Give the backbone structure.
Amino acid sequence: MNKGQETYQRVIDTAIYLFAKDGIHKTSFAMIAKELGMTKPSLYYYVESKDELIKKVFVYIFQDYAFENYFKVEDMTKDNLMEQLYTGGMKYLNEIQEQKVLLNLLSEYTLYANRIKAVDETYIQKIKEVQKMFIDGFVHVLQKATEFGLMEENNLQAKAGVLALMLDNLLNYKMLDMQIVESAIWSQTITDVMK
């Protein structure tokens, strides 16, 4: 990575930190430049505007955000499906929780997307796509479970929605620093859905 690429990555990392800490709306271009130890005109060399930086950070945080990174459906068998579902969910929760900044940033972008959706639907559409990707992924997992005879084939879409919503809710509770035992709740959710 050359010096220009390193500086650009620092710009992205600094914006991530400030957007998560202070909010997208409250973070100014001047604040980002100051945090980086550069002048505001120097920052324009790397990004043309705050709006462009908001988009670049958004793309950056969602580029590797995929259901398949946590739930390897192709590796699921009759004997390991429930364990794989549990492990994938815990991996997801732990990775996101370990990066409290990312958790705050995801929440901030959800608020931002709703705030500007009348003007620009790009953000809300991407967030909806990610949510749909998780629900569709869980539908696929539950279809496999029915093929293996682990559960009845009824209300798969609703049950997939329960799994996706539970992951989101568990993250929200952790973001609020509420003391919960997410592993037990996630395990119970899987057991209930598989009935």
Remarks:
- The domain at 3-59 is CATH 1.10.10.60 (Arc Repressor Mutant, subunit A).
- The CA atoms of residues 67 and 133 lie 7 Å apart.
